[in-house]
Amino acid sequence: MTTVKIRRYDIDWLRVILFGLLIPFHVAIGVYWSTYGAEINPNIDDISDQEIGAVFVEENNDYTTESVSFTSMILHWMHQWRLAALFMISGMGTAFAFKSRTWKLFLKERCQRLLIPMFFGAWTMGFIGSVILDPQSSDPVGNFLWGIIWRSLVFWIPIFGKLIALGHLWFLWNLFQYSLIMTPIFHYSSKYPDGDLVRFLQSFFSIPMGLGILLILPLILSISEIIFKPWFPGYIGVGYEWFWFFVFFAFGYICIIAKEQYYDFLENQRIVITVITLFSTMAFIWLRLQQHDSGIPYVDGGWLENNIFHNEMTILACLIHSFHSWFWCLTIFSWGSKFLNKSSRHLSYLNQGVYPFYIVHMPLTYAGLRLSTYLGLKNYPAVILSTLFVIITCWIFFELVRRSRVTRFLFGIKEKKSL
């Protein structure tokens, strides 16, 4: 029996767009939150001493993730759903992949397109980023070789090792872990497409009034927060976020397994989804302001540091946080299915550029911020110039690496299909 391949262009477009948002987001948090240090923050004048910078940040509560200025709130809002949606898209991609792959071929491709770019990027981009942040190094070659050894060893430290070794490339490691853990389910569902497991997964879409998707799935997300959030603050895919993003990844798979039920749901409930999303956004803004006023990390987690395990407010925070993220994902996918499910001669090119742009953009972000600082730009002009700088330099880099089979392999670019 021949498997009919169905290409969902809206998912491809959303993948490109959401990865693309990574660049202005990472630039902006360097400007408005001093995420990479005061010395490359163009908003902070004449502060090169880190200790002075730390006092400045603490006393004014500016340029930190606790800021609730308009721009900071936009960044907080974006951070809640962009990565969640990307993990859902990754889960959707695995559902499509298993229609034409065995589990062995799937894992082989996961290693090639995730682990190899991850380690190569950590060794090279991590070193380049450290040079841009601290250009005074006297032995760059020795630091590069030591960095390879150091990052390779530190990586294996449980929980925190990947934070130090991988930096922004943690997404690839989480994605590989999720894929590995879920492979038995992928394989079983592919082998028995009409079996009990698939029927159970599809059943979420057949519950009356759409309550399986509108209520039960976000409640599952909330439960994962209730269980893990008191213990572990969420930070680049560890703590409660590891489990939370895992659930999003699994939900993405379930959506494609549900076949037309999923897209019929998006079509029929689009307005309802959008209205609920607007209300959940207002609830999230209120929650973020409550965190700022109380000093208790309701959004971020790790409440045991405040001698709180759970109370009414933390339970409510878990519900608001998960429902807000879930409904923004549904809103994005529902309107994406309406407007973006169209082929384009540019889409394949852009899709190939996703991993190279993602892998190299971080050190270029540091360079862009240094450039804006040198030119005396601040606020939005600094964000705009730095973003344009990163996009242009990433594109030049992509044009170079896509022309060689070796560099395509190292940066996770799929090989061109021979005609």
Largest sheet: none
* Class of secondary structure makeup: mainly alpha
Low-confidence stretches: 46-61
Q: Kindly estimate the percentage of residues that lie in beta strands according to DSSP.
A: under 5%
Instruction: Specify Rg, calculated over alpha carbons.
Output: 22 Å
What average pLDDT do the residues reach?
89
Tell me how many strands there are.
Answer: 0
Shape: globular
Between the first and last Cα atoms, what is the distance in angstroms? Answer: 23 Å
The tally of helices reads 17
Number of domains: 1
User: Percent range for helical residues?
Assistant: over 70%
How do the helices and strands follow one another from N- to C-terminus?
HHHHHHHHHHHHHHHHH
Describe the structure.
It is a single chain. It is built from 17 helices and no strands. It has one domain. About 4% of the residues have low confidence. The longest helix has 31 residues. With 419 residues, it is an all-alpha fold.
Task: Explain the layout of strands and helices.
Layout: H1 9-20, H2 22-32, H3 50-60, H4 70-97, H5 103-133, H6 140-154, H7 161-166, H8 170-191, H9 196-202, H10 211-228, H11 240-257, H12 260-268, H13 270-294, H14 312-339, H15 347-375, H16 379-401, H17 405-410
Care to give the gist of this entry?
This protein has 419 residues and is mostly helical. It is 71% helix and 0% strand.
Which structural traits does this protein have?
71% helix, mainly alpha, globular, single chain, 419 residues
